[in-house]
Design a protein that fits this description.
The protein contains no helices and seven strands. By secondary structure, the protein is an all-beta fold. The protein has one domain: SH3 type barrels, CATH 2.30.30. The strands form two sheets. Strands 6-5-4-1-7 form a five-stranded antiparallel beta sheet, with no helix packed on it. A two-stranded antiparallel ribbon has the order 2-3. The protein is elongated and about 55 Å long.
Amino acid sequence: MDSIKEYDLVVLTKDISAIHKQTQIPILLRRGQVGTVVMDFEEQAFLIDFADKEGVTYAMETVDKKYLIPLLYQPSSVLAS
């Protein structure tokens, strides 16, 4: 698996509870939700910024690495056996 770094886009692999940043109302961040890594906690967990299409943050949560997949934009090279 590719390593996750600050400013990477990532996808949640499971639903997690959060608090809406503006309203302080509990919300559910769904599996497949996309966010941006803003802080790395020793590559074990990451602070993720979840924002709408206009770039307005609606949640910021610390998520364990095992529940994140980095978005990939380039293929990996295949080694011949």
